[in-house]
Specification:
Helices cover about 20% and strands about 40% of the residues. It is of the alpha+beta class. The chain has a single domain, classed as Sandwich (Immunoglobulin-like), CATH 2.60.40. The strands form 2 sheets. The protein has a 5-stranded mixed β-sheet with strand order 8-7-1-4-9, covered by helices on one side. A 5-stranded antiparallel β-sheet has the order 6-5-2-3-10, with no helix packed on it. Helix 2 crosses helix 3. It starts with a helix and ends in a 5-residue tail after the last strand.
Length: about 160
């Protein structure tokens, strides 16, 4: 029994260290996204939200994304490891929620023609992965989206 606990602790430690790998410098990220175009561009009359989950830790656990409330019809899609989703929103204040073992909420104000990037950060949970949300700069957001795959989009706008 102790051997199993030790092996489990070692695996969790490696997973945590893998998730803590530092990001490249801002200069390197800027250079890598200089010629990169987003999969879905901004439009003049709507805001665009990208939610990216760059970590492969807990990749089998879905992190569902909701717009403005936590009802089933407000689900915009979900990410697994190293995926992103996007959706258009009306300009103004919104709350983006991410569901894993826990709920993570992030209030955002989005202007027409603006792109907002949120990162789903993976945390160790009791039964499965937990999550939190972080707002990213344009450079960080484009850098992480560039290397991620498209997640599952339920709907593109509300």
């Amino acid at each position: 029994m102790i051997k199993i606990l030790c092996k489990t602790a070692a695996i969790l430690s490696i997973a945590l260290l893998y998730g803590c790998v530092s990001a490249p410098s801002m200069e390197k990220m800027q250079a890598e996204v200089a010629q990169y175009s987003l999969p879905k561009p901004a439009v003049a009359d709507k805001g665009l939200v990208y939610v990216v989950r760059p970590s492969n830790v807990g990749m089998m656990v879905r992190f569902n994304v909701f717009l403005d409330d936590k009802e089933a019809d407000s689900e915009m899609g979900y990410n697994r490891g190293n995926q992103y989703i996007y959706f258009y929103v009306t300009p103004g204040q919104h709350v983006i929620s991410s569901k894993a073992e826990n709920w993570a909420d992030m209030p955002v104000t989005v202007k027409a023609g603006e792109v907002v990037y949120l990162k789903q950060e993976v945390e160790v949970g009791v039964m499965m992965a937990r999550n939190s949300l972080k707002v990213l700069s344009d450079v960080e957001g484009r850098y992480l989206v560039k290397d991620a795959a498209l997640g599952t989009i339920a709907k593109e706008s509300k």
